[in-house]
Write a structure and sequence with these properties.
Blueprint: H1 3-28, H2 37-55, H3 58-69, H4 74-92, H5 95-118, H6 121-142, H7 148-156, H8 162-185, H9 201-215, E1 222-226, E2 232-236, E3 239-244, H10 251-270, H11 286-300, H12 304-317, H13 319-322, H14 327-333, H15 351-367, H16 375-387, H17 413-432, H18 436-441, H19 446-457, H20 465-473, H21 480-493
Parallel strand pairs: 1-3
Antiparallel strand pairs: 2-3
This protein binds zinc ion (ZN).
Length: 496
């Protein structure tokens, strides 16, 4: 066996082992009986340790050294580069720190659940202090050129820097704010009651499944189940599982939730199985992953042409709720813009202000400019300034998201990067595929998906998300496509 073959065999084995943990994780959040939670935690922590041992084995380091010295073709260079990136990161972080982080974040998540419920920031504060200190240690161990935040960001968005993101986000906010203000000043308002009528759960499931299948989600290689906090889990080739939750008095939650997760699922199903576990068969970045979910949820699912095709399907299933509703009223209702406290309930425009706020606070936490004790005050001030709202309690403010309690500092920007990439990809699809609105209106998604498969899914992690975006759309990531898309949507709806 050549050193390259031995290296890739070991890396793939670690990926297979990791996917076993993925399957147990999916089961934990869907079907696991409550009494099995403790044993499941033991299973998952054993697997995590085995995966870590396999990926940091000294033999991997030796093989990397040998392989890097020899001639490599383009594909191999990309494979080896990513193994090196993961290996360096894994061995630089001391085992003591990995264990400490795992222990602290498990307890911190439990503390966060209780603190959010009781609106009790002081109960969560010491946990966040511990986590910020540990994440700073992690950043120092991994190393960075400019900002400690970059070391954390690199785990989710390889190659991206806080400086670049700050610049794109600044331009986005500069133009987004006046648009949101203009909408607030409009006298037009949608009929929201349309969405909170009686929507039987079985029919919601039927509609969601029908639409997921229509956009290309392969149910022979995936499934849809129910959970509390929906997610998509790509277990491996031929097995991608999406989840949702149903509210019989609110259609949006499951409908757009399923489209969102099916978008993630299409990306997973589009990865090249021949490169399973290796960079060319791995998703590019979390930002690009999110672009796929936002693409189908928003760029497609919240567009007017899509509802030319989908509205009759919805009316058929919900005659009592939608029988007397005009498609245009429905379309306005699913596109309402209104500043709100909770990020996950935010509309397509104000959502990004929620992310920018978190991105700024996280950076200040990492540099030490913002002491953890001052987080609620800083949070509330930013909400007041960017959304014009007064935060009444921390459950509606800095305690609302799970991310920090799990150690996920550096994750938030990938959501808005996803929105930006999705709009820029749609612009390129309109240029390359053509007649996109006509296709959506007829429920024809094949050519749009084929473009994404070819340009995004099959590319895997051969380059950074920024480089991929520039190559397939013809220009570096810019806030303009998203801003243009939002203006084009809201100008007629709100008569701006
Ligand atoms: Zn997502």
């Amino acid at each position: 066996m050549t050193p390259y073959d031995e290296l890739t065999t070991r890396v793939r084995e670690a990926a297979v082992l990791g996917s076993c943990a993925g399957l147990l994780g999916w089961d934990e959040r869907t079907f696991l009986p409550p009494a099995g939670a403790e044993h499941r935690a033991a299973q998952l922590s054993l697997l995590a340790r085995l995966v870590h041992e396999q990926s940091t084995a000294p033999r991997i380091g030796e093989l990397l050294g040998q392989v890097e010295a020899g001639p490599l073709d383009g594909e191999q260079t990309c494979v080896v580069r990513e193994v090196r990136r993961g290996y360096d990161r894994a061995v630089k972080v001391p085992a003591r720190l990995v264990e400490e982080l795992a222990k602290v974040t498990t307890l911190a998540q439990q503390a966060w659940v209780a603190a959010r419920q009781k609106k009790d920031w002081p109960a969560f504060r010491p946990w966040l202090e511990k986590i910020v200190a540990l994440k700073r240690e992690e950043a120092d161990a991994v190393g960075y050129r400019e900002s400690p935040y970059d070391a954390l960001l690199d785990e989710y968005e390889p190659g991206a820097t806080a400086r670049e993101i700050t610049e794109v986000f600044r331009k986005l906010r500069e133009q987004l704010t006046p648009l949101i203000e203009a909408i607030a000043g409009s006298t037009r308002r949608p009929r929201k009651d349309i969405l909170t009528r009686d929507y039987p759960v079985e029919k919601q499931k039927d509609l969601g499944t029908t639409v997921a299948r229509a956009i290309g989600f392969d149910f022979d290689a995936g499934r849809l189940d129910t959970t509390t906090h929906p997610f998509c889990s790509g277990i491996g080739p031929g097995d991608c599982r999406i989840t949702t939750r149903y509210n019989s008095r609110f259609l949006n939650e499951s409908f757009f939730g399923i489209l969102h997760e099916a978008g993630h699922g299409l990306y997973e199903q589009g990865l090249n199985p021949a490169f399973y576990g290796l960079a060319p068969g791995t998703y590019c970045s979390l930002g690009l992953h999110e672009s796929q979910s936002r693409f189908w949820e928003n760029q497609v699912g919240r567009s007017r042409p899509f509802w030319d095709w989908c509205f009759p399907l919805a009316q058929e299933r919900f005659p009592a709720a939608l029988g007397d509703v005009a498609p245009d009223d429905f379309y306005f209702a699913i596109n309402e813009v209104t500043p709100s406290f909770i990020r996950v309930e935010a509309d397509e425009a104000t959502y990004n202000l929620h992310i920018i706020l978190r991105f700024e606070l996280e950076q200040a936490l990492m540099t030490g400019d913002l002491p953890v004790a001052d987080v609620p005050a800083a949070w509330n001030e930013k909400v007041e300034k960017s959304l014009g709202l007064t935060v009444a309690d921390d459950a509606l403010g800095c305690l609302q998201d799970i991310h920090w309690s799990g150690g996920g500092i550096g994750y938030f920007p990938t959501y808005t990067l996803g929105n930006l990439y999705s709009a820029q990809l749609m612009e390129a699809i309109r240029r390359d595929v053509g007649d996109v609105d006509g296709r959506l209106g007829r429920g024809e998604f094949t050519d749009v998906l084929a473009w994404l498969r070819d340009k995004v899914h099959h590319a895997g992690r051969r380059e950074s998300a920024g480089a991929l975006c520039e190559r397939v759309t013809g220009r570096p990531l810019s806030p303009e496509p998203l801003l243009g898309y939002l203006r084009a949507k809201y100008t007629p709806l709100y008569a701006l």
